[in-house]
Hints:
Elements lengths: L7 E8 L5 H11 L20 H6 L7 E6 L2 E7 L7 H10 L2 E7 L6 H12 L4 E6 L8 H10 L5 E3 L1 E4 L7 E4 L4 E5 L8 E4 L6 H17 L2 H8 L6 H13 L4 E5 L8 H11 L9 E4 L10 E4 L8 E9 L4 E9 L1 E3 L3 E4 L4 E4 L2 E6 L4 E5 L1 E3 L3 E5 L9 E3 L6 E2 L6 H4 L3
Parallel strand pairs: 1-3, 1-4, 4-5, 5-11, 6-11
Antiparallel strand pairs: 2-3, 7-8, 8-9, 9-10, 12-13, 12-24, 14-15, 14-23, 15-22, 16-21, 17-18, 19-20, 19-22
Helix pairs in contact: 6-7
Amino acid sequence: MPASTESIRNIGIVAHIDAGKTTTTERILYYAGASHKMGQVDEGTTQTDFDPEEAKRGITIYSAAVTCHWKDCTINIIDTPGHVDFTAEVQRSLRVLDGAVVVFSAVEGVEAQSETVWRQADEFRVPRLCFVNKMDRIGADFDRTLGQVRDRLKGNPVVLTIPIGAGHEFKGIIDLLQMKALYFDRETMGREIEVTDIPEDMRETAARWRSKLLDSVSMLDDEVMTAYLEGEEVTAEQIHRVLRAGTLARELQPTFCGSSLDYCGVQPVLDAVNNYLPSPLDVPPVEGINPSPKKGEDEHAIRKVDKNEPFAGLIFKIAADKHADMCFVRVYSGVLKSGSRALNPRTGKKELISQIWHIQAGHREKIETDAVDAGGIAGVIGPKQVVTGDTLCDQKHPIILESINFPETVISMA
Ligand code: GDP
């Protein structure tokens, strides 16, 4: 059964190199039931770094798109490259995703490339969550990192989990929605989570953070403000509603902490992807240029996320597979069908859509499908004369989706 458009999350995980993007992605894939055996970055066996050359170099050169499932949602993770040389590649990924999880290291804090990526996410109007990783490392400082997100990135992090201890003393997290302590068991790779009352010595701190959360939420919503001022209980549903609206409006970033190495703190991030990040229906319709407008027709074209519209999709990455190149396509409107021909308006050529695959993380398995509806992402085999950034579209309704503007200064930034 194809996923309903409301339940799709097209997300990216973005970070400065070494902040733990690959490890966090692995944990997400693991919890989302896609992975049997966890990949280990240091052994070069992770799910998203599947190119041997890439694994050898230990950096994610290009963006693979993998699909996983968490609760009611289908999450397509577009793995954005972390290396500074590939900023143009990051931009291309940001263009096709609807939301992002920004990973920071609690030791290094906000680094130069985090600023570049954050600015680009602003430019592409990408709603985001923050995950402050590496809380188990010596020198980890959650508060300092939050301060840097505010001061250097001009962000508005709204904290939903806080660490219990830091460095060698890091033991788990406190979930400020449930007001419970969560301890993760590394032996069972975080599958076993002990949920307890908040330890005595953390109660005051937790209560202070919970008040900060309610302050932030009530500032944004009159109903919550009234309830809060009158001393009524603010429900989790009310908090979710306000945080979702604030995230979509890019006024705030729900923020979490943990250690992806210890599997700790990643599950609340997955819940937040479902609860707060947009579905393809929440983002504005895609705009483009009609290359051959008929008399009286406007050059400017808009396509809605609707499977009854003519098909239009963007090739955001081409990956060399063993047998044939695979083009990763974001379908913006209509339906991409296996066996059909799609126009590449740049070349004027019709390209055959021989096969359509979903890349399921876990077994590096590809699952073939007949069609992908508007809002979805898939790997396509067949197109020959295409390059990254090309549009594929309905032959009778040509459109060139907005070209990506790469400012020179950003590309050459070190
Ligand atoms: P990326 O470059 O952002 O993709 O970062 P990686 O996920 O490859 O992580 C960089 C290094 O940091 C690897 O050696 C990881 O094992 C390590 N690492 C990642 N997350 C954590 C964490 O939460 N705690 C600790 N101690 N190490 C981590």
